[in-house]
Amino acid sequence: MVDGLAAGLEAAWQTLLNRVAAEIRETGAVTGCPALSAPVRQALATVPRHRFVADEQRGWAYADMPLPIGRGQTISQPFIVALMTELLALDPAMTILEIGAGSGYQTAVLAQLARQVYSVERIPELAEAAAQRWREMGIENVAIRVGDGGQGWEEYAPFDGIMVTAAATDVPPALVRQLKPGGRLVIPVGEPGYTQDLRVIHKDPQGVVFSRSALPVVFVPLIQDRD
Ligand code: SAH
């Protein structure tokens, strides 16, 4: 636990983790992810989700649902956080790019499993609040910039994996370019307001790109400069 949980919260979190594990198993045939792995489960158990939501939402922090985080944005449902994290197939040496830091929760989970996480968030207040939370929790292997994540983060590219936590109508070409051969890009693709398609885009060692659909999902839109 990053900061220790009260006993009641700890019990609620274990119940939630068991539920997430069951959902991962039940959707395994579709997602290609058969089970919640021990490292991802450990990362989820380590990051206190209640610290990433407003006081009024804290009672719901260990329910398997998305919650509002202000500015019309949401922190993703724990099952989706777990699934997207699994789909990246992380290892501790990896450098990851995340688009859409929001509350900073998913970033903090990635930071438990990767060497370094770079995150891009377009709303300055959310970026500042996320960075403040990471500081308070002693999470140091994360950097954030405010801007359009559709452009990626050229300075630190290429990345071993990229996760986008907002729905894009098309896969931003800059993100595919900034992915290392052998790397994966996990991104919801589709029109906002409808169900989107959670895609796993794999760049093979020769640089050939393959895409598959993992699950129908619902995300807030990725708002690009051209919009
Ligand atoms: N992963 C977050 C939830 C993200 S909600 C969490 O764990 O809390 C989606 C986020 O994407 C929002 O914060 C939104 O402001 C951000 N976003 C939308 N379009 C963006 C863009 N073009 N570049 C960067 N961030 C963007």
Which terms summarize this structure?
227 residues; alpha/beta; Rossmann fold; seven-stranded mixed β-sheet; two-stranded antiparallel sheet; 25% strand; binds S-adenosyl-L-homocysteine
Q: Distance between termini?
A: 40 Å
CATH class: Alpha Beta
Give the bound compounds. S-adenosyl-L-homocysteine
Q: CATH superfamily name?
A: Vaccinia Virus protein VP39
Percent range of helical residues: 25-40%
- Summarize the main sheet: 7 strands, mixed
SSE series: HHHEEHEHEHEEHEEE
CATH architecture grouping: 3-Layer(aba) Sandwich
| Rg | 16 Å
Q: Order of strands side by side in the largest beta sheet? A: 5-4-3-6-7-8-9
What overall geometry do the principal axes of the alpha carbons give? globular
Assembly state (oligomeric): single chain
Strand elements, count: 9
Poorly predicted runs are none
Q: What's the overall average pLDDT, rounded?
A: 95
Description:
With about 230 residues, the chain is of the alpha/beta class. It has a single domain (about 1-215), classed as 3-Layer(aba) Sandwich (Rossmann fold). About 30% of the residues lie in helices and about 25% in strands. The chain contains 7 helices and 9 strands, in the order αααββαβαβαββαβββ. The strands form 2 sheets. A 7-stranded mixed sheet has the order 5-4-3-6-7-8-9. Helix 1 packs across helix 4 and helix 3 (about 40-45) packs across helix 5. The chain binds S-adenosyl-L-homocysteine. The site of S-adenosyl-L-homocysteine has 25 residues, from strand 2, helix 5 and strand 4.
